[in-house]
Specification:
The chain starts with 6 loop residues before the first strand and ends with a helix. The longest helix has 11 residues. It has 4 helices and 10 strands; from the N terminus they run E-H-E-E-E-E-H-H-E-E-E-E-E-H.
């Protein structure tokens, strides 16, 4: 029945500024009107709607103002350099100090975080294959720690 995510929506204070930001990410503008713009995440599969209005003042909470973009593990490895190249600053996740990619073995994914101009939380995220005996690790491991742990297993 469900084939994937069709759309997600985020609030913004300035549509022109939001369009410039999401264009820098390499997303294609699908259409816009006075106060709304939609960008393809995967062309003709999924998009994000950006809505200009007072809603951007809503306090941040991941259930309201968060979006994760799926990337490959190799792209995640290079994500900090890529973000900095397009003049976007990565941010630490939660209580972490590091902006660098990290792995959640118990969830089977890895992430890097950054914000859009309105403070909406954005994430580059990928699936990672986790050996059965490591699936109980609930700590967030740096990418380097993760790769070293995998090396030790081989």
């Amino acid at each position: 029945m469900i084939l994937g995510l069709y759309e997600a929506h985020l609030p913004g204070s300035n549509l022109k500024q939001s369009i410039e930001f999401y264009s820098k990410l390499g997303l294609e503008l699908a259409w816009r009107d006075e106060d709304t713009a939609f960008f393809w995440i995967e062309k003709e599969k999924s998009w994000v709607g950006l809505w200009e209005g007072e809603e951007h003042k809503t306090s941040y909470h991941p259930s309201l103002r968060h979006l994760a973009f799926r990337v490959s593990y190799e792209d995640l490895r290079n994500s900090i350099k890529w973000l900095q190249t397009i003049e976007i600053d990565p941010v630490p996740f939660g209580k972490r100090d590091s902006i660098h990619p990290f792995v959640r073995p118990n969830q089977g994914n890895a992430s890097v975080y950054f914000d859009d101009p309105d403070g909406n939380s954005l994430e580059l995220m990928c699936f990672v294959s986790v050996p059965e005996n490591l699936k109980n690790i609930s700590n967030k491991l740096s990418r380097e720690e993760w790769e070293e742990l995998l090396k030790e297993m081989n």
